[in-house]
Amino acid sequence: MQETATKLLENKLPALLSHFAGECVDATDFRGDLCVVVRPGRIRDVIAFLKASPELPFEILMDLFAMDYLKSKEPPPERFAVVYQLYSVSRGRRVRLKAYLPEARPEIDSIHDVYKAANWFEREAWDLFGVDFRGHPSLVRILCHNEFVGHALRKDYPADRYQRLRSVSPSSGI
Amino acid sequence: MRDPARPATSPILTPPEESHRELSFTTRLEDFVNWGRKNSLWPLPFGTACCAIEYMSVVSAHYDVSRFGAEVVRFSPRQSDCILVLGTVVEKMAPVLKNIYDQMLEPKWVIAVGVCASSGGFYRAYHVMQGIDEIVPVDVYVPGCPPTPEGIIHGLIRLQEKIAKGGLVRARDRHKAIGK
């Protein structure tokens, strides 16, 4: 991690740096919003720590979603990323965690048992981007119907490919 | 006997014998039945988006669709004969719409209200059906995003004109050809 990033974390989130220095890859600050890039391997530990950390508890998982950087003008090290938006109600602070995932195996540990809200968010990220969340209790499609093939929001999914659902049945997800 | 000089769109009073002047009239059976049908449509609002909000205005006092005999809004396909598809129909919803349409009894008509129902509108993407005419036969398309209440009433009047010109028995084969 670069020195500026280390200093930023020391200023804004010292607890994370002291406990998970090895997991942090980069940290940036955009207009007061802290964004920390972390390694995907121990994401569950990092997030569980941030939720329980007594001096800065991030009680709420505001959002969790995936990114596809295919055809990006400034491509990051890997094609996919999972982004976690945490919010601390007691301190009024926010932090964004980002973990890059390789194109060949986009998978990361599920955090559904840390934040219950993550359950459906992870299903959505799997449905639309094909990111696999290890340990998720029921990783099935949530927005597209069950006969849908592929992952619709990947950048290589054709914008004009429609997949018809012909019948109403329990297996079709309705 | 029908006077051939008169239009066939409504029952026509023709003077019968003097003794029955106040009591009777003659017309064609098709004209009489269609006159009844077009002035007593029972709509089923299949509302999925903002077009349904406009339809609420159409039914309410200011626009007052009962002036056209179509105010008996029913939420059961068994009790209605005109389904208004008001809004975006996503691929996941498509078989639901088809199922509801199939449960309506003949004669039945379909109005696609707004650009989403007509062509997918600005949802040119993986999740939205590009016009409901892929699965159900549409009689009238109402443009607009959303259409004004006047626009929906205009569509209703066009449907009434269409009903007035139609035959007594609707061709079921036309319905079967679509959606298979």
Number of domain modules of chain B = 1
Tell me, rounded to a whole number, the average pLDDT of chain B: 84
Uncertain runs of chain B with pLDDT below 50, 5 residues or more? none
Q: What's the CATH architecture name of chain A?
A: 2-Layer Sandwich
Mean pLDDT of chain A: 88
Q: Under CATH, the topology of chain B is which?
A: Rossmann fold
CATH superfamily of chain A, please? NADH:ubiquinone oxidoreductase Nqo5 subunit
Helix/strand-derived category of chain B reads alpha/beta
**What is the rounded distance between the termini of chain A?**
47 Å
Question: If you had to describe this structure to a student in words, what would you say it looks like?
Answer:
The complex is a heterodimer of chains A (174) and B (180). By secondary structure, chain A is of the alpha/beta class. Chain A has helices spanning 3-12, 14-20, 43-52, 118-129; strands at 24-30, 33-38, 60-68, 80-88, 93-101, 107-109, 132-134. Chain A has one domain: NADH:ubiquinone oxidoreductase Nqo5 subunit (Beta Polymerase, domain 2). Chain A has a 5-stranded mixed β-sheet. A two-stranded parallel ribbon of chain A has the order 6-7. In chain A, strand 6 (107-109), helix 4 and strand 7 form a beta-alpha-beta unit. The N and C termini of chain A lie far apart (47 Å). With 180 residues, chain B is an alpha/beta fold. Chain B contains 6 helices and 4 strands. Chain B has helices at residues 29-38, 51-59, 94-103, 114-119, 149-165, 172-177, and strands at residues 43-47, 82-86, 109-113, 140-142. Chain B is 32% helix and 10% strand. Chain B has a 4-stranded parallel β-sheet with strand order 1-2-3-4. The radius of gyration of chain B is 18 Å and the shape is elongated. The interface between A and B is medium-sized, with 18 and 12 residues.
